């Protein structure tokens, strides 16, 4: 199975300093891509792309945004692309300058025109609520991390109910200051399982059961002193497979990074994954994303050297035991492109990769869409009622906006 480049986003270049691609999300039906552009010197904005070749449908901004809010630092999208959650973890919400309580903005309705602002019920100074966000397939449940809560002990919140007005707070049962619980977050398709990563504790946690009350703690079997285990997490659709990134782990080289896949009862079965060409400080595992079925994994290594420059690479693992590795180099090829800084799976055959440093050091940013046909299938390309679709042995899926057929069919 080989993923190939299909689109470079957006078609028109973002402005210098936008950092387009800082965060990415991909709807599970393959119809919608969401890309954050944090604009460190501005308010930040989020691009929604859909249709053939993923053209810009709208650009989202916060109605009460301010410079430095980091709006777009984290994004998530429902399975059908109709609900979008955006983190703005440095939003002050009217508090004292420097008190970054954070916020999550939810967009829904026609053309994502309805904005709902969520905030934490118990903010502390520099909580950074919204540093990470995740959303269930139906858009009814949103999870958000506040890694700075209470001296960076960290907390996560699950919002649900009418206008996401109900809230359940999650804290690590053994958490302490500087754990940064909430550094990363992921949610199952039905919203019943939530995974939360840390940065300082080198741990990850999974919450399930009624009001997410059952906690399962995940630690690697081979922890390293330099570990950033938990810096990135990703659940499969059913929540039974968990990927955890550790960008500081000793892999093929010192601090080259690792990713881990957990499955089985209590996530007790651990599979460590290393880059076959790993080098020190690659940041392999800085971003991770599982395919919906949990059978494929994409790992970002945003500092990996390609052609002698630290511009980033992406690794895709497929096959039994994730044994097959495909390395995708930075498409732009400049130093500090941060290619792979963010990654997301849509369908099992489409991924999006963010590169917020692209544009010759001016950090305009870019994102890239890669796709592959279903393995072992015979493929035909047709139009039904004018809509381009792809038909294979496994059924029908409307994802040809990702694909160019071998026989030259143009969606």
Describe the structure concisely for a colleague.
The protein is mainly β. The protein is built from 1 helix and 33 strands.
Written description of the protein model:
This protein is an all-beta fold and 411 residues long. The protein folds into two domains: 4-372, Methylamine Dehydrogenase, Chain H (7 Propeller), CATH 2.130.10; 381-411, no CATH class. It is built from one helix and 33 strands. The protein is globular, with a radius of gyration of 20 Å. Residues 376-411 have low confidence and may be disordered. It has one helix spanning 149-152, and strands spanning 4-9, 20-26, 32-37, 45-50, 55-60, 71-77, 84-88, 103-108, 114-118, 129-135, 142-146, 155-160, 166-170, 184-187, 194-197, 204-208, 214-218, 232-235, 242-246, 258-263, 269-273, 284-290, 297-301, 305-306, 309-310, 313-318, 324-329, 342-345, 350-355, 366-371, 380-384, 387-392, 395-397. Strands 1-30-29-28 form a four-stranded antiparallel β-sheet, with no helix packed on it. A four-stranded antiparallel β-sheet has the order 2-3-4-5, with no helix packed on it. A four-stranded antiparallel β-sheet has the order 6-7-8-9, with no helix packed on it.
Query: Averaging pLDDT over every residue, what do you get?
Result: 88
According to CATH, what is the class of the largest domain? Mainly Beta
In CATH terms, the superfamily of the largest domain is Integrin alpha, N-terminal
Largest sheet, in brief, is:
4 strands, antiparallel
Counting H and I runs of at least 4 residues, what is the number of helices?
A: 1
**Molecular shape:** globular
Q: Span between N and C termini?
A: 22 Å
């Amino acid at each position: 199975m080989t993923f190939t480049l299909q689109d470079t986003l957006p078609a028109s270049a973002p402005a210098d300093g936008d950092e387009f691609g800082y965060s990415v999300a991909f709807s599970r039906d393959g119809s919608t891509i969401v890309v954050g552009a944090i604009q460190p010197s501005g308010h930040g904005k989020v691009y929604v792309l859909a249709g053939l070749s993923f053209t810009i449908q709208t650009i989202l901004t916060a109605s009460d945004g301010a410079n430095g809010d980091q709006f777009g630092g984290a994004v998530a999208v429902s399975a059908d692309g109709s609900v979008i959650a955006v983190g703005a973890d440095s939003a002050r919400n009217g508090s004292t300058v420097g008190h970054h309580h954070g916020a999550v903005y939810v967009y829904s309705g026609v053309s994502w025109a309805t904005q709902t602002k969520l905030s934490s019920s118990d903010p502390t100074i520099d909580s950074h609520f919204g540093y990470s966000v995740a959303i269930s397939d139906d858009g009814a449940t949103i999870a958000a991390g506040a890694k700075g809560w209470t001296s960076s002990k960290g907390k996560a919140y699950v919002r649900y109910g009418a206008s996401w007005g109900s809230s359940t707070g999650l804290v690590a049962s053994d958490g302490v200051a500087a754990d940064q619980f909430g550094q990363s977050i992921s949610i199952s398709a039905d919203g019943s399982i939530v995974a939360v990563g840390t940065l300082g504790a080198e741990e990850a946690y999974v919450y399930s059961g009624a009001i997410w009350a059952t906690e399962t703690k995940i630690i690697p079997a081979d922890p390293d002193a330099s570990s950033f285990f938990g810096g990135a997490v990703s659940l499969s659709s059913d929540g039974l497979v968990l990927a955890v990134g550790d960008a500081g782990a000793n892999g093929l080289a010192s601090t080259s990074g690792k990713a881990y896949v957990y499955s089985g009862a209590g996530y007790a079965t651990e599979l460590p994954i290393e880059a076959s060409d790993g080098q020190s400080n690659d940041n392999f595992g800085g971003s991770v994303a599982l395919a919906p079925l949990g059978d494929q994994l994409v790992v970002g290594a945003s500092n990996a050297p390609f052609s002698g420059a630290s511009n980033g690479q992406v690794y895709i693992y497929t096959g039994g035991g994730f044994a097959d590795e495909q390395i995708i180099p930075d498409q732009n090829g400049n130093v500090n492109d941060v290619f792979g800084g963010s990654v997301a799976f849509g369908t099992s055959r489409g991924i999006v990769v963010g590169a917020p440093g692209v544009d010759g050091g001016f950090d305009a940013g870019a994102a890239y869409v890669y796709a592959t046909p279903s393995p072992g299938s015979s493929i035909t390309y047709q139009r039904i009622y004018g809509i381009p679709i792809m038909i294979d042995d496994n059924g029908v899926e409307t994802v040809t906006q990702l694909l160019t057929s071998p026989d030259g069919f143009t969606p």
